[in-house]
Every structure is written in C-alpha cells, then in structure tokens.
C-alpha cells in the first residue's frame, strides 16, 4: 500500500483505516521529504513492514552509505536504480550485508528499479535509449540479479520478461501501477489490474492513488481485491 501523501498525519490516518488489510506500506519521496526518517522509524518500530521507495541513484559510495542508513531504519525493503550500474549495486549489497551482520540487524530486501511505469518507448528515446521497454527491463533485471539484488521493480507488463531473464524463483518482482478494472491510469502508462499482475507472476504489487484518493479507502481496497477473487 503506497502512502503517497503530503503529511505524516495523512499517513497515520491511512494506517488506522487499513492496518491489517495491507501486507506492507510504501513510503516514497513525497512523504519522506515532508516527514523524514523519524516517521519511517516510528512505523518500523510499531511492527509495520515498510518499503522505502526513494530510488537511490548516485555514485556507488553515496548510494551504499544511504542504503546502510535505510537498513538502520529497520525497513523491510528499499530500492536503488539499476541504471546506476554494477559497481553501485554490488557495493550497496556488500556494505548493507556487512553492517547488518555486524550490528545484528535484519537485512532488508534490496530491489532494483528498472524502467519507471510512467515511461514508454518515446520516453526512453528522449534519453538516448533505443529499443523496446521490455528489452531494457530484461537487461536491467539480469544485471541486478548478477549484482546480488533481491529483485526488481517493473511494470506488470514486463513480469514475463523478468522471469525469462532471471529464472531464479527467489528473485522477486514488485509491480506498481495496479488499478481497478475501471480506473484511469493517471500519469502511469504501463498499468494493469490485480488479477493480471498476480497471474502474470508478480510477487508483490503496489497500489496507491486508487485507494489513497478514494472517499472510502477500505472499500476501494476491497473492490480491487474482489475483482481478483471473482475469477479465482
């Protein structure tokens, strides 16, 4: 469940409404910029599984050190951009693993971001990348796996490509862009519904605005789940 809101108060309100109904809660750039690491620590210390979605992308040393601090916050999962390259990813995995072992912390899942769900072939061409999105996602997934990451973030449309590129069943695929069957896509271009994502092989799905912006958030969540259950 994506806590893509502007204040800690809004995030806490969503938690009260959906506690026990969502497997984990995602804190992204907007909420982190507004409330900072203290809110992350508050949630993790309450027993909440937190996916810290800050998409670290910088020189290897900077990303590795930032990732260590994310681990110290007690998050369940965080992500880094696979576009940062193998040195960045390998150093992050190494330093996080060493610190978690030394400080006796649970090691969080480290997930590589492939191609954002707001992007398409035209977006890629603007930044000098040719070819199909699916091909780029597969390349980045293979690179992330070779660097020791636990999985990747990818559109539901590319889950099959990730599975073909990395046949390891333990390599996770996290898919944002989940919508109700009748919802709009907003600014995301490669979206799908919960049934298609799960049947396609997604391990975890991220749902945000279709629920957080609903008048009745619990009802919106149950609607998305029911659309999946109706055909299973």
Structure commentary:
The protein has helices at residues 8-18, 29-45, 60-72, 86-102, 121-126, 133-146, 159-165, 194-200, 209-212, 217-229, and strands at residues 25-28, 50-56, 77-81, 109-113, 151-153, 172-175, 178-179, 192-193, 204-205. The radius of gyration is 17 Å and the shape is globular. It is of the alpha/beta class and 232 residues long. It is built from 10 helices and 9 strands. Helix 3 runs parallel beside helix 4 (86-102) and helix 6 packs across helix 7. Strands 1-2-3-4-5-6-9 form a 7-stranded parallel β-sheet. The chain has a two-stranded parallel sheet with strand order 7-8. It has one domain (8-229): Alpha-Beta Barrel (TIM Barrel), CATH 3.20.20.70. The longest helix has 17 residues, at 29-45.
Question: How are the SSEs ordered, and which strands pair?
Answer:
Blueprint: H1 8-18, E1 25-28, H2 29-45, E2 50-56, H3 60-72, E3 77-81, H4 86-102, E4 109-113, H5 121-126, H6 133-146, E5 151-153, H7 159-165, E6 172-175, E7 178-179, E8 192-193, H8 194-200, E9 204-205, H9 209-212, H10 217-229
